[in-house]
Amino acid sequence: MIRRLYDWTISLAEHRHALWALAFVAFIESSVFPIPPDVLMVPMIIARPSRAWLIASVALVASVLGGLLGYYIGFGLFESVGRPVLEFYGKDAYFEEFRARYNEWGAWAVLIAGVTPFPFKVITILSGSTGLNFGIFVVASIVARGFRFFIVAALLWKFGPPVRDFIEKRLGVVFTVLMLLFFGGFAMVKYL
């Protein structure tokens, strides 16, 4: 199923309405869709490098708007669905403790998830369900998604097709390793 979604997303890059398709994929990826917009951005930028900044901008705006939908899903559905489930299992007190911890570090969670392969939709929904400050959520989303999409666009604009393989095969791993080192550094500072 994931492979079919991937292939479908790639086919959208060749369509005459590719920018609209990119906006759609970036929007729903931030709240429910499993395929990241990079999959569509990469072939679009390689095909038309002169539009790299426009393509990255469309992905950024649509992704942040989709993140707002994810935040709303978490915010709106938590009370009606999430809280009753937690209460049923006697875990509502644990959620309050988690909420406090998450909101203390929530901006970092949004920044890291917005840049890494970690599913951004998880963080957008979680941010809404914990009531992370909306302004902080929006700013962190803009910074993270902007960084991610414009780095990809800059690399493709500058180096073209040879970087495509690197981005598709290794960039997610590199970002993940960097984030593990980042969190590891915080853990070392906290416990030393």
Describe the structure.
This protein is mainly α and 192 residues long. The protein has helices at 2-12, 18-29, 38-47, 52-88, 92-115, 120-130, 134-159, 162-191. It is elongated and about 55 Å long. The N and C termini lie far apart (46 Å).
In short:
Helices cover 84% and strands 0% of the residues.
User: So what's the overall shape?
Assistant: elongated
Q: Could you spell the SSE succession in H and E letters?
A: HHHHHHHH
Low-confidence spans: none
Number of helices: 8
Helicity range of the residues?
A: over 70%
Q: Note the main sheet.
A: none
State which percent range the strand residues make up.
under 5%
What class would the helix/strand composition place it in? mainly alpha
Mean pLDDT over all positions: 81
State the end-to-end CA separation. 46 Å
Q: What's the total count of β strands?
A: 0
Instruction: From the alpha carbons, calculate the radius of gyration and give it in angstroms.
Output: 18 Å
Characteristic terms for this protein:
192 residues, mainly alpha, single chain
Fold topology:
Elements: H1 2-12, H2 18-29, H3 38-47, H4 52-88, H5 92-115, H6 120-130, H7 134-159, H8 162-191
Helix pairs in contact: 2-4, 3-4, 3-7, 4-6, 4-7, 5-6, 5-7, 7-8
